[in-house]
Amino acid sequence: MPPITRHQLKKTGLKTEPYSKENRPLDKRAALLDLVTNNVTGVKTSSQTTKPLEVVKNDDSTKTENTCKITQPKKEISQPFVAKKPETRSSAKEAARLSLNSSDDSNLYKSTLEETAVSRNSAKSDELYTTAVDSTHRSSLENNQSDLYHSAAQELSVNSNAEEIFEIDQSSWNNFMYVGCYARDIIKYLKQREDNFTVTDYINKQPELTAKHRAIVVNWLVSLQEMYGLNHEVLYMAVKLIDLYLMNNDTLQNRFQLLASGALLLATKVDERGEPGFPYDLVKHSKYIYTEDELFVTERELFRALKYEINVPLSYVFLRRYARCMKCQMILLTLARYILECSLLDYKFVTLKDSQKAAASLYLAFKMCNKVIEAKEFFKYTDYRVTEIKETVIELNNMLHTQSSNLSAVKQKYSHETFFKVANKSLLSNSKLIFD
């Protein structure tokens, strides 16, 4: 006999299985509820009056007793089976709930309570474990912080015993701009690197270049720096890179300006905020004697010839550090910068250390401003004794007296009000230079 189809079941009025595809509940408990409901609705009510049915639930896990009473109607209401379903649906569901709460579902109820208890215990254990880990981690961090604090304090005390901390560094010890805690070490490091970038006498080895050619090119770089508002460090670095390159490489006179442009372009990439369109500007201001491609090739050649060592110590940086430690006024610092920038054009100062030129320029500025500086204090901040820079100070003073009127880019620059017109300040004779 072939199986009965679902279409035939619908005609006969028979109910499909609760787990059929058409009537499949989403929840296991809902499935049991529907199953009990269907069974209850199929049972005919008794015509006789029944006694109240007591359903007692003994829950071993909770040790409680629940008693529910179900009162059946006294008279039977004869209604069709299909019409009776909606009227008895609520009572059937109630009976289903009661039957689910009976002893047959006690195991399911008990397992649910056990799972809840286990989950609570596990959550509590996880919370206790997390709290313990957090407390352990926090204590370890506190210990580490305390260790770091004591080590830092010990290191600070050792350093303070070894060398005195400058007042200017102590005031900016935690300043991220001036980094007073590292400033002195940075200057020491730069002074150690000076020996790696010492320039020797090279002008006599060049086939076509002279000291005058060098002064003309440097004067042109000063005008470009002022025209485009570049940092002073860019100017000093460009001149230093030129000297380092010419010390070991020959350059023709007609290629000297191209070399200077490549050095300035390379310096802008090291110590400048940006250089939009700057290569084309260099070509334009050189009156198109070379192209941008030639400029880029020269820049790469310069970089390769210097073995990529271009982070050189600069006299401008040393001067700024010395003036800051001595709390110099801005007009005195500007005068020292003017003296130092004039020395860039003079070839005789090429072989000197940058820190020495900075110290000598600052000392000469003190004398020109009639300011008194003790030799002991000067040595404390510059590591140079007055006797060590005496000849350099005299050479710088002579340079100011013998400046060329044709190479006046530096003088015009520092004759402006922005620079306090320090270039117009009266000069001193060597006889008035008193070295204490």
TrEMBL record:
A Gene Ontology BP annotation from the UniProt entry: mitotic cell cycle phase transition
One Pfam family this chain carries?
Answer: Cyclin_N
Q: Which residues form the Cyclin-like domain?
A: 219-304, 317-398
TM ranges: none
Q: Which Gene3D superfamilies does this UniProt record tie to the protein?
A: Cyclin-like
- The record's region (Disordered) falls at 1-24, 82-106
Basic and acidic residues composition bias: residue spans: 84-96
Molecular function via GO? cyclin-dependent protein serine/threonine kinase regulator activity
Tell me where on the tree of life, at the top rank, the source sits. Eukaryota
Where does the record place the Cyclin C-terminal domain? 313-428
Sorted UniProt keywords: Cell cycle, Cell division, Cyclin
PANTHER family membership: CYCLINS
Q: Which family does it belong to?
A: Belongs to the cyclin family.
- What is the protein named? G2/mitotic-specific cyclin-B3
- Classification of source organism: Eukaryota, Metazoa, Ecdysozoa, Arthropoda, Hexapoda
